[in-house]
Amino acid sequence: MHKRNLTREKIILVSFCLADEIGINQLNFQKIAEKLDVKYPSLYNHFNNMDELKIEMTVYMLNEMNQKLMHRLIGKSGYDAIREYASVYKEFAFENKTAYKLFINIPSTKNNELFNLMRKITHIIHEILKSYIKDEILLVHKSRTLRSLLHGFISLYSFGYFQGDVDLEDTFKSMIDDFISSLNK
């Protein structure tokens, strides 16, 4: 690959692929440059350091997740929208394990674009829940509850805690149904 073909997006996509192979903590500019067949100093023309690259990788991933959420939520409302939101979130995390791990471990939300994307994900669930919850404080609590349930489920599954004969999807459905039931109290 020639330098003139090197873009931020190409670096980000190759970084995700490489991180899937070697782990996000092993990722560095030298390894990324080897994969891209460029000299590693040329990466500094696009990113100041690894922290900036990881933040931009997270921004890229959140944009992808938001697009998927918006696409799959079209025409859905109520309980169906809650179930779809939960399914998309889980599916995205399972399909993009490295990206999700990066998202959960990103050191800071001082990046405005990253902060706004994270708020957008929160806004989506707030909009869905507003038809059930009028109190703003309770809305925040229920939004946090749902996001915590999703993250906990994904994390426990990723660590290998969900073994045995009970179907994983049945467990997930039961968890979301319990959350939905809590909205009627």
From TrEMBL:
Domain of life: Bacteria
A UniProt-annotated Pfam family: TetR_N
GO MF, any single term: DNA binding
Domain HTH tetR-type: 5-65
UniProt keyword terms in alphabetical order: DNA-binding, Transcription, Transcription regulation
DNA-binding region, residue intervals: 28-47
Coiled-coil portions: none
Record-linked Gene3D superfamilies: Homeodomain-like (1.10.10.60), Tetracycline Repressor, domain 2 (1.10.357.10)
Descriptive protein name: AcrR family transcriptional regulator
